[in-house]
C-alpha cells in the first residue's frame, strides 16, 4: 500500500531539504534519486534532481532537464523553468545557439503553461546570461 506512494514521499522530502539548502543542494539529491528508483519517469523528481545537479554536475543537469522535457506534459508548470535552466547551463558551457534555442522554447512554454501564482528567478537569470 505505502510502496506505491514512496516516489512522492521521497520527492516531498527532497523538495523540503532543497528549500532549506538552496545554496548547497547536495543533501536533497539522494531523496530525488530514491524517488526515481520507485518511479523512474516521475517528472517532478527528475526536474528537482536536475536543479540540484546544476551546482553539483552541470553536464548531468543538462541530461536530466532533457529527460524531464521528454516525460513531462507540455503544460507542466516546470517546463518553462527547465528551458530557462538549460539557457543558463548552455551559456555556462559557451553554447550560445543552444541557449538561444531554449530561451525561445521557454517563452513559448511559459505561454502554454497552466495558470500558477509561482514566479521563478530562472527567467531573469536566463535573460541576464543572454544579454
Distance between the termini: 51 Å
| Count of distinct strands | 0
Chain-averaged pLDDT: 90
SSE pattern: HHHHHHH
Secondary-structure-derived class = mainly alpha
Which stretches are low in confidence, meaning pLDDT under 50 for 5 or more residues running?
Answer: none
Strand content: under 5%
What does this structure look like?
This protein is mostly helical. 72% of the residues lie in helices and 0% in strands. It has seven helices and no strands. It has helices at 6-20, 29-38, 43-56, 58-71, 79-92, 96-112, 121-130. It is globular and about 50 Å long. The termini are far apart. The model has no long low-confidence stretch (mean pLDDT 90).
Lay out the secondary structure.
Layout: H1 6-20, H2 29-38, H3 43-56, H4 58-71, H5 79-92, H6 96-112, H7 121-130
In short:
The protein is mainly alpha-helical and 131 residues long.
Question: Which features does this protein show?
Answer:
131 residues, mainly alpha, globular
